[in-house]
Amino acid sequence: MNLGSPDSTRVKDVRRYLNEFLMDERVIDMPYLGRLLLVKGIIVPFRAPKSAKAYASIWTDEGSPLIVLSQQLQQALQQQVEEPVVLAMRYGSPAPWTAYDELLEKVPDLEEVVLLPLYPHYAMSSYETAVEYAKEVHAKRKYKFKLTIVPPYYNNESYLQALTESMRPYLQQAWDHFLFSYHGVPERHIHKGDITGQHCLKVSNCCEVASPAHARCYRHQCLASTRLVAERLQLPAGKYSTSFQSRLGRDPWLQPYTAERLAQLPGEGVKKLLVACPAFVSDCLETLEEIAVEGKESFLHAGGESFTMIPCLNVHPLWVKAIAGWMKEGGLKELEQHV
Predict the structure, then answer these.
(1) Are 223 and 209 in contact (CB under 8 A)?
(2) 3-state DSSP call for residue 64?
(3) CATH number, domain with residue 207
(4) Are 162 and 278 members of one domain?
(5) 131 and 228 part of one domain
(6) Fewer CB within 10 Å of terminal CB in the chain, N or C?
(7) What is the span of the domain harbouring residue 145?
(8) Backbone angles phi, psi at 113, to 5 degrees
């Protein structure tokens, strides 16, 4: 299950998609009427035409890159497992009930469905909303099969190996700094996700201090992914850093902001930059347009000389192998115990 995408680059389709996405109470977490006025009265009318233009700049002959790459992942995984593999999206199509019904057509006596959210890290606006929506559809439509959820896998060895090896070839070129850019979230989401109510963004070096809160702390999990990948790639201290992109609105989001860092790095002596976006497993608008186009332009304009965005995992063979391993007998239990 991935995020989803507009059906086309037409403004009306982008508007419909943005309305569904931004009206999600786990994305913009404010009372319904306020969210309605903000989304449909202010954000979407201004954002839809700009987003449509941005989508048009990355759209392929096959369609939305996120959808196409997700389909390719589904097909690649299907070649490695016997059980039927289908695709669902949190927003747009194919919807979860479409996927459930497709599975039932293939296996009428279906007993269990394993849901893999294509989000390595736990965030209420990504992993959580996908999982809760899939569970809601499952309950409302009274499906008889059991629904098993794959937990966040940001620190899973198979995932880390795939991520590391997908990045390693890019270290062969000349580079000064490696930037790990994750999708940002508002700080209030971090506070809301703190199951202890007294740790996240309240304790000094909270992400390094052991706490049950880390099970749902997006910031901790992102920083952990950076550290674990940097260790495997043997990146020198001071030659890599973490930032957060895609800020929306004026509320404080996780910092530092990617857009600001891209403009600052050349002034700090970084002329050759590598950028990876590990919050995404499939390349999409936020990687192909926001980073590879806008981010590159900002970095070069500020005095940078070379900018390379490392592709997401997409259909990397080790990524497909990792998922297949989780689906095999005992694989999912090992993943759950690891988390």
Answers:
(1) no
(2) coil
(3) 3.40.50.1400
(4) yes
(5) no
(6) C
(7) 65-153+317-338
(8) -120, 130
Cβ(3)–Cβ(88) under 8 Å?
A: no
Do residue 164 and residue 276 come from a single domain? yes
Among 47, 6, 50, 52, CA closest to 28: 47
- 148 shares its domain with 161: no
Same domain, yes or no, for 202 and 278? yes
Distance CA 215, CA 73 (A): 27
pLDDT at 339 over 60: no
The pLDDT tens digits for 165-191 are 999 999 999 999 999 999 999 999 999
DSSP per residue over 302-314, as a string? Answer: TT--EEEEPP--T
Is the confidence at residue 152, as pLDDT, over 70?
yes
Structure confidence at residue 328 (pLDDT):
84
The model's pLDDT over 68-78, given as tens digits with 9 standing for 90+, comes to 999 999 999 99
Cis bond leading into 169, ω under 30°?
Answer: no
Asked if residue 162 and residue 96 are part of one domain, the reply reads: no
Q: What single-letter amino acid sits at 178?
A: F
> Cα angle at 272 between 269 and 278, to 5 degrees?
110
